[in-house]
């Protein structure tokens, strides 16, 4: 049997919408996007060369950061475009099947799980919330430590290290209090919450240390209220801490069915 030359790259599962609205929509590698429809489910798909997305090719390309960035940008762009037209269940990067018929089969096999998740996501979006701490920040009311006149260099070094540790501990306590308060306030306004691993400071462009990295599933009609609550929390944040929101996004953190993401 001849090996197929093309594959189906799947961005998201959604409810069917007007096929004409995918005109001009492009995804990875600039390939056009179309819908594969099965009953009351659909998948946003691009037809791509199989030799660029088979297991061997992906293994090599996943080491290429530039390629990953380009694919991620295109992938998220399609998911966002679909989310403007229908409720969308985003799939993982490089979810690839051997043809549209296989995609239809996956939609049939997972119809109940997909439908239940899509129903949970209707008219809801994801908002990311991060808390940062500026380690060692000195508060406005904190007095400048006095240096003894007869202090030796060794004692001075140990004293400075102790002061740095104490300031860091103080900052962490303030940040912990902000995280607790933020999760209490924002969690009450959200439908669901997902806790993510905090970002490595060396890999993040943001200043300070990321101490909370949550995602909240929020009703579309409450987005403005939710973002205002984040602003209010930030205005009252203890010195040396801050809270930031991003989004709204398609609900990546709440796309629970994973059966479709293995590919094949």
UniProtKB/TrEMBL annotation:
GO biological process, one term: gas vesicle organization
Keyword Transmembrane tagged: no
Compartment annotation: Gas vesicle
Source domain of life: Bacteria
Region annotation Disordered: where it falls in the sequence: 138-171, 239-264
Keywords annotated in UniProt: Gas vesicle
Major localization class: other
Signal peptide, first to last residue: none
Pfam families xrefs: GvpL_GvpF (PF06386)
GO cellular component: gas vesicle
Family classification: Belongs to the gas vesicle GvpF/GvpL family.
Name of the molecule in the record: GvpL/GvpF family gas vesicle protein
UniProt lineage: Bacteria, Bacillati, Actinomycetota, Actinomycetes, Streptosporangiales
